[in-house]
Specification:
The chain is mostly helical. The chain has one domain (33-139). It is built from 6 helices and no strands. Helix 4 (98-110) packs antiparallel against helix 5 (116-131). The longest helix is centred in the middle third of the chain and has 38 residues, at 57-94. It starts with 6 loop residues before the first helix and ends with a helix.
């Protein structure tokens, strides 16, 4: 008796997960690009917003001293998150790491960096539903 899942079951599981995985890859790729744009954005763009709010100059200067570094850290964090989602989605397509694929789906739902979470969430939920089927779960290595 072999512990390896049947080839037809494995092919069916891979086929069932292909749609959600591709959707998550596309959404996370867009999210990664948006994060890179956030990394390239100048903090002076935020200064104009604060000045339009008619805040005192001292308060604007204080806020600007925090905006630049925080903006860079957040952009790098969201970029890395999206790269992880892409990696997990690729693992999901190959049926090679159940835990990583599940984590990628959950993070894709929680990734609220941009409009990409609206795009990724349905695919991630679809992926979670499919991966929780017994025959699909058994197909993972």
């Amino acid at each position: 008796m072999s512990l390896e899942p049947d080839a037809p079951n494995r092919a069916a599981a891979a086929s069932a997960l292909k749609g959600p995985a591709i959707g998550m890859i596309v959404a996370a790729s867009i999210g990664a690009v948006v994060s890179l744009f956030g990394l390239m954005q100048k903090p002076d763009d935020a200064r104009a917003v604060y000045e339009m709010m008619k805040l005192p100059k001292e308060q604007v200067d204080q806020m600007m001293s925090m905006v630049g570094p925080l903006q860079k850290v957040m952009a790098i964090g969201f970029f890395l998150l999206n790269v992880f989602i892409i990696f997990g989605s690729l693992k999901m397509m190959k049926l090679s790491s159940y835990g990583l694929a599940m984590t990628a789906c959950i993070l894709a739902i929680l990734d609220c960096n941009s409009c990409c979470c609206i795009l990724a969430a349905p695919f991630a939920i679809w992926g979670l539903v499919v991966m929780n089927r017994a025959e699909v779960k058994a197909s993972f290595q």
